[in-house]
Amino acid sequence: MPKYTAPEFLTDLLHARSPSGYEFEAQKVFDTYVKPAADLYEKDALGNRIATLNPSGDPVLMLAGHMDELGLIITYINKDGFIYFDTIGGHDRTVISGRRVIINTASGPVKGVTGKRAIHLMDEADRKKVPEIHEIWIDIGARSKKEALERVAIGDCATYDHEFELFNGSIGAARAFDNKVGAYAVGEVIRRLAKQKKKLAAKVVSVATSQEEIGVRGATTAAYAVNPHIAIAIDVGHATDHPDCDNRKYGETKLGSGPIICRGANINPKVHERLVTCAKKLEIPCQFEADPRPTGTDARAVQMGRGGVATGLISVPLRYMHTPSEVVDIEDVERCVKLMTAFALSLEKGDYAHW
């Protein structure tokens, strides 16, 4: 069996270090791969990347996938050169300690490790506690505050030093599948639509959004600027097929079983119906989730843009979300790209009048 190879565009995004507000490396990757395929390509003050195809088309379809990831931000350095930080995005404090990290600085990357008191030096009560953020530090091997400040600065950000790796066919692990897969997917749709010869009625605007992990901020401004009739957000969703997940609470979704299509208050029924129709037509396996409230994705911001947007949500099944080793089946990502491409091609002038 030939070795599975992930798309270069996706691989480059996964290697890019881009915590919320510091999306610079991911922006460069998106610029490199998507800008040449777009009819119009824009950047905004929040760091969004906005690629448009068929600018005179009707209706206006917006595709949104966020390119930011979790990170750490340097807040204090003590007299001995140990670095303290706060979290960017929603971290699980049980997995921060003992990690290799890379701090992005003006002079380049600085490597370090996250430290805390060893278990041998704890009493029984301490061993049962989850350390608070201020009880964990980054060690870069500095011997003083002065030496540390020569290498890093307050406000620099760090990411885990865990890189993308395939470990079983198309199944791989990475620190930031959430949501580099979404940013890849919306960019790849533009690239594929630009190459295909089928007539596109819609104006398609793919946005690699910024700052989703700290409050869907990039999607909020992008939705206002793009002013779409219809939108699809793509993010990661919980694969609930591992041992410690109660399907009665969290539903049933599986790695490798196709895109997760959401239903609920955040989702326009017509958009949902069209996504399902497109999936059936292409024989793309898909799964379903129900969410009774605004979802924890860009979809919640986009739906409320201006006078309201007919919005759908597709998710890539993912295990171990917001840990340094998230797990995804790359074939699910490919299916999401095909589904969104088909959805864009299915739109006809005036479709949105009834959505």
Q: Major sheet: order of its strands? A: 1-2-12-3-13-16-14-15
The CATH superfamily of the largest domain appears as Zn peptidases
H/E element order:
HHEEEEEEEHEHEEEHEHEHEHEHEEH
Query: Architecture of the largest domain, CATH level 2?
Result: 3-Layer(aba) Sandwich
As a percent range, the share of helical residues equals 25-40%
The low-confidence runs, each spanning 5 or more residues with pLDDT under 50, are none
Structural class: alpha+beta
CATH class of the largest domain: Alpha Beta
Number of helical segments with 4 or more residues:
10
Mean pLDDT: 96
Q: How much strand?
A: 25-35%
Distance between the termini: 46 Å
What's the count of strands? Answer: 17
- What value does the Rg take, in angstroms? 21 Å
For the biggest sheet, the summary is: 8 strands, mixed
Query: How many distinct domains?
Result: 2
Would you give the CATH topology of the largest domain? Aminopeptidase
Overall shape: globular
Describe the protein's architecture and organization.
The chain has 355 residues and is of the alpha+beta class. It has helices spanning 8-15, 24-34, 124-127, 145-149, 177-195, 217-226, 247-250, 269-281, 299-303, 330-346, and strands at 40-43, 49-53, 60-66, 71-77, 83-88, 100-105, 108-115, 137-139, 157-160, 165-168, 171-174, 203-209, 230-238, 260-264, 287-291, 310-318, 326-329. The protein has 2 domains: 8-69 and 176-354, Aminopeptidase (3-Layer(aba) Sandwich), CATH 3.40.630.10; 71-160, Beta Barrel (Elongation Factor Tu (Ef-tu), domain 3), CATH 2.40.30. Strands 1-2-12-3-13-16-14-15 form an 8-stranded mixed β-sheet, with helices on both faces. Helix 1 runs antiparallel to helix 2, helix 2 (24-34) packs parallel to helix 5 and helix 8 (269-281) crosses helix 10.
